[in-house]
Design brief:
1 helix, four-stranded mixed beta sheet, 15% helix, 191 residues, three-stranded antiparallel beta sheet, mainly beta, single chain
Length: 191
């Protein structure tokens, strides 16, 4: 029967939409942040949030790390600009939710680690120089760029100026490396 076919099709579509909405809600509100949260030195526009309760207000406090709350005070979502001093800042982000009756809940706290990356200066090189290890601080990141193989720079890449990038936990820093031309010596002559 054609009517039964359409009813089954509508039922399957409704079931699919329900599962899709439940899955989206699970992933949207199921997001967690590892404590401590890691941000880059001088990071801007870092967003923090808690699940929203429509009748509640939220009091956010940012302490340490040179953090400045930019937007969102009294809402469930804020943006923060972090400062230029690396390190671990305990309880750097705090939020207290108050319900419609003005009763505050328990403070929610988050430590923040501000990550400052650096790379060892290298060079200048000549095209025949040996492969040189790249060292980033703190250790554990990865290097990329022209002439980078593993975590080494190969001057045999050729003459030029290269920008090499050290990356870790979503943060990046760069170093400039130069490979110079060698002299072009003419043939030996005898007079």
């Amino acid at each position: 029967n054609i009517m039964n076919y359409y009813k089954q099709k509508q039922l399957l579509l409704a079931l699919f939409i329900t599962v899709l909405l439940m899955t989206t809600s699970l992933f949207t509100f199921g997001q967690t942040t590892i404590n401590p949260d890691t941000v880059c030195l001088n990071a801007t526009g870092e967003q923090y949030l808690v699940a929203v309760t429509p009748t509640s207000t939220y009091q956010w406090t940012i302490t340490g790390g040179g953090g400045i709350l930019q937007t969102g005070q009294t809402t469930n979502s804020i943006t923060v600009d972090w400062g230029g001093v690396s390190g671990l800042y305990a309880n750097a982000v705090e939020v207290i939710e108050s319900n419609a009756a003005g009763c505050p809940g328990a403070p929610q706290l988050l430590d923040v680690f501000i990550l400052d990356l650096s790379g060892n200066p290298l060079g200048p090189f000549c095209p025949g120089d040996p492969t040189t290890p790249l060292v980033g601080s703190p250790a554990g990141g990865s290097w990329s760029g022209t002439g980078v193989v593993g975590n080494n720079f190969q001057p045999s890449t050729g003459v030029g100026n290269y920008v090499l990038t050290y990356s870790m936990a979503g943060c990046n820093t760069t170093i400039n490396v130069t490979v110079n031309n060698g002299p072009i010596t003419g043939p030996i002559q005898h007079f």
